[in-house]
Specification:
Number of strands of chain B: 2
Structural class of chain A: alpha/beta
CATH architecture of chain B: Orthogonal Bundle
Strand order of the largest sheet of chain B: 1-2
Radius of gyration of chain A: 23 Å
CATH class of chain B: Mainly Alpha
Strand content of chain B: under 5%
Oligomer: heterodimer
Structural class of chain B: mainly alpha
Strand content of chain A: 15-25%
Helix content of chain B: over 70%
Helix content of chain A: 25-40%
Number of strands of chain A: 12
CATH superfamily of the largest domain in chain A: Periplasmic binding protein-like II
Number of helices of chain A: 10
Largest sheet of chain B: 2 strands, antiparallel
CATH topology of the largest domain in chain A: D-Maltodextrin-Binding Protein, domain 2
Distance between the termini of chain B: 40 Å
Largest interface: A-B, 41 and 32 residues
CATH topology of chain B: MetI-like fold
Radius of gyration of chain B: 24 Å
C-alpha cells in the first residue's frame, strides 16, 4: 500500500545520507585572520595539485575567530595576524590544546588615502594624532592639508572591528602599547571594505594590508620620525624591515605539526608556497626568488 | 431613481482618491523587486553560463564558476528539510488535532512564536555551542543544517497548523461518525486536504534557508573548499556565504562576479516560490469545498 512506504523511505534516505562518512581523504581545518584568508585560499587551491588526497578547508572571520577555534580545539591550523596573548595560550592549555606558533610571512600595513588627497607622506606621529584617543587632528586643515572634494574638512577615520588582528597590530605599532583608539571611528568588517570606502570618500583615511591595495586608492609614504626620509609600503621594504608598520603573520598548530599538517606547513614554507604569498602582495617569511 | 446629492458626489471622490492611493502603494511594493532583479540581470547576466554554474572557482576565487557553492547550498537545504519537515508537520498535527486547550499548549504556542522572532545570528551561536561543540559534529553540513532547521521550524509548524485548521471541522465529524479513529481521520481526510498549505510552508522554508548566511557561517560553511562534500560530516561552500566572500573579502574580483552569484541565488529563490504558487493553485483547483 502506498501509505505504508512513507516512513521506511524517509529512513532509507537518511541512512544513505549518513553513511557516506567513511573517506580516504584527509581534511585540514584552516580558520582565522581575514588578512591571511586570501593567501590561505590560494595555498589550499594550489595544494590540490601537490597532494590531491589532502583537502584544506578554509574559513575567515578574523584572527580572534581563528584563535577562539584553536582554544576550543575545532581547527587544525589557526591563522592569525597577531600573536596569541598569554591569557589566550593559558586558556588553550587549560582545555588541553597546546598552540605552537609558525611565522608564515610578513604583512605591511598600508595607510590608504583618497586619490585626490594631496598628502603624500604621513608620519607615525600624525597617524597617532588622527587615530589616538588624545589625538588633536580632527580636521585635514589641522595637518595643513586641503583635500579637494572634502568640503566638511573633517577627517573620516576608518578603522577595523576590534577582533581583527589588523586592528590590534595597528594599535600597537602606531598608538603604542597602552594607546587607545579615539571614539567615532568607522569600524569596517574586512580589509577590503576599508579600501573600498576610502576609494569613494575624499575625507577618509584608513589602514589595511598592502595586499588589498587597488589602482583607485593612494598609499601614503610613512615617516618613522618627522623629518626623516619616508618609506613606501612594499614587499621589499617589509622584508628588509625598513617599513615601520609591518608585522609577522602566524599559523598556529595544536602541538608540533605531524603527518598531513606537517607536510602542508612544510610546503607553505617551501619556495613554491612562499612565492604564492609574495604574489598575493605579502612579504615572505624567508628569502625566495620568484618570477 | 435617486438623484445624486452633493454629499454623495464628495463621498465618491474621496473613495476614488483612496482607491488610487492604495493602488499606488501596492505598485510601490513591486518597485524594489523590479529594480533589484533588473540591476542583477544587467550587471551580472553576462557572466551566467553553464561553465559558471558547473565549474569550480579558480585564481583565488576571482575566476571560474560557483559549482561547489551551488552544490553545497542544495546539500544544506536538503538536510535541513529532512530534519525540520517531519518534526514540523508532526508538531502541527499534534497542535491542530490532538492538543487540548490548556496552559501547556499555550506555552508551546508561545515558544513557537518566540522561536520565529529569534535573530538568525543568535541561532548561529546556539548552533556553534550545541551542534559543533557539545554534540561534537564539528563544523559540518549536519551542524549547519540542524541550525537552519531549528531556525525555520516555526515557519513549517505555523503554515502546516493553519492549513490543517482550514479543513472544515464537519469533514472530521463526518469521518468520526463513520467509526474512524482520530489517526484514520487525519491520515485519510485532514492531511490530503491540507497538503497544499503544508507544501507552501515547506517551500517558504526552502527559500528562506537558501538565502541565510549567519547561521551557516560558523557552523558549516567554508570560505573555500577544494572538494565537494560527500557526507553530512563534511564542511561545504554555500552560495549565500560565497556572495558575501566575493563581494567583501576577495580583492580584484571582476565586477560581474558578485552580481552573477546574487542573480543565481535570487533566481533559485524565485523559482522555488513560483513552483510553490503554481503547485498551490493546482491543488486548490482539486479542493472539494
Amino acid at each position: 500500500m502506498k501509505s505504508s512506504n512513507f516512513i521506511p523511505t524517509v529512513l532509507l534516505g537518511a541512512a544513505v545520507v549518513f553513511s557516506g562518512a567513511s573517506q580516504a581523504r584527509t581534511v585540514i581545518q584552516n580558520k582565522g585572520s581575514d588578512t591571511l584568508v586570501n593567501v590561505a585560499q590560494a595555498w589550499a587551491e594550489e595544494y590540490q595539485k601537490v597532494d590531491s588526497d589532502v583537502a584544506v578547508a578554509v574559513s575567515g572571520g578574523g584572527s580572534g575567530t581563528g584563535i577562539a577555534a584553536m582554544i576550543n580545539g575545532t581547527v587544525d591550523l589557526a591563522n592569525a595576524s597577531r600573536k596569541m596573548k598569554d591569557s589566550e595560550i593559558k586558556q588553550a592549555k587549560d582545555r588541553g590544546q597546546n598552540p605552537v606558533e609558525h611565522v608564515v610571512g610578513y604583512d605591511a600595513l598600508a595607510v590608504f588615502l583618497h586619490p585626490d588627497n594631496p598628502a603624500g607622506t604621513v608620519s607615525l606621529e600624525q597617524l597617532k594624532s588622527i587615530y589616538g584617543r588624545k589625538g588633536k587632528a580632527e580636521k585635514w586643515s589641522d595637518l595643513g592639508i586641503k583635500v579637494p572634494g572634502c568640503d566638511s574638512d573633517k577627517i573620516i577615520v576608518v578603522s577595523r572591528q576590534n577582533n581583527s588582528g589588523t586592528y590590534a597590530y595597528f594599535q600597537e605599532a602606531v598608538l603604542g602599547k597602552k594607546g587607545k583608539y579615539r571614539s567615532g571611528t568607522l569600524d569596517m568588517h574586512g580589509s577590503k571594505d576599508v579600501v573600498d570606502l576610502v576609494e569613494k570618500t575624499p575625507c577618509a583615511i584608513g589602514y589595511s594590508g598592502l595586499a588589498y591595495a587597488t589602482d583607485h586608492v593612494k598609499m601614503a609614504c610613512i615617516e618613522k620620525e618627522a623629518g626623516q626620509a619616508c618609506v613606501n609600503p612594499s614587499v621589499a621594504t617589509a622584508v628588509d624591515r625598513s617599513y615601520p608598520i609591518a608585522r609577522p603573520l602566524f599559523m598556529y598548530t595544536n602541538g608540533e605539526p605531524q603527518g598531513a599538517i606537517k607536510d602542508y606547513l612544510d610546503w607553505i614554507m617551501s619556495d613554491t608556497g612562499q612565492c604564492i604569498i609574495v604574489n598575493k602582495g605579502y612579504a615572505p617569511a624567508k628569502t625566495v626568488s620568484c618570477e | 431613481m435617486f438623484s445624486t446629492t452633493q454629499l454623495n458626489e464628495r463621498n465618491q471622490r474621496t473613495q476614488g482618491l483612496f482607491r488610487l492611493l492604495f493602488l499606488m502603494m501596492t505598485w510601490l511594493l513591486i518597485l524594489p523587486v523590479l529594480i533589484i532583479v533588473s540591476t542583477l540581470i544587467y550587471k551580472g547576466g553576462s557572466i551566467i553560463s553553464a561553465d559558471f554554474l558547473f565549474t569550480v572557482p579558480t585564481d583565488g576565487m576571482t575566476a571560474g564558476g560557483i559549482f561547489p557553492a551551488l552544490f553545497g547550498t542544495v546539500w544544506l537545504v536538503g538536510v535541513a528539510l529532512l530534519a525540520s519537515v517531519p518534526i514540523g508537520i508532526a508538531a502541527a498535527i499534534y497542535l491542530s488535532e490532538y492538543a487540548p486547550d490548556n496552559w501547556l499548549t499555550r506555552v508551546i504556542n508561545l515558544a513557537i512564536i518566540n522561536l520565529a522572532g529569534v535573530p538568525s545570528i543568535v541561532h548561529a551561536l546556539f548552533g556553534v555551542g550545541a551542534f559543533v561543540i557539545f554534540f561534537k559534529f564539528g563544523t559540518s553540513i549536519l551542524a549547519a543544517s540542524l541550525t537552519l532547521a531549528i531556525m525555520t521550524l516555526p515557519v513549517v509548524i505555523v503554515a502546516s497548523r493553519e492549513s490543517l485548521q482550514a479543513v472544515p471541522h464537519a469533514f472530521r465529524e463526518a469521518c468520526w461518525n463513520m467509526g474512524a479513529t482520530r489517526w484514520q481521520t487525519i491520515r485519510r481526510v485532514v492531511l490530503p486536504n491540507a497538503v497544499s498549505g503544508i507544501l507552501t510552508g515547506v517551500i517558504l522554508e526552502v527559500s528562506r534557508t537558501t538565502g541565510e548566511t549567519a547561521p551557516i557561517m560558523f557552523t558549516g560553511a567554508a570560505f573555500y573548499l577544494p572538494f565537494l562534500p560527500e557526507s553530512v560530516f563534511d564542511q561545504t561552500m554555500a552560495l549565500s556565504l560565497h556572495l558575501f566572500v566575493v563581494s567583501t573579502q576577495v580583492p580584484n574580483v571582476p565586477e560581474a562576479l558578485p552580481y552573477g552569484v546574487a542573480l543565481v541565488l535570487i533566481a533559485m529563490v524565485l523559482i522555488m516560490n513560483s513552483i510553490s504558487i503554481a503547485f498551490r493553485m493546482y491543488l486548490r483547483g482539486k479542493k472539494k469545498w
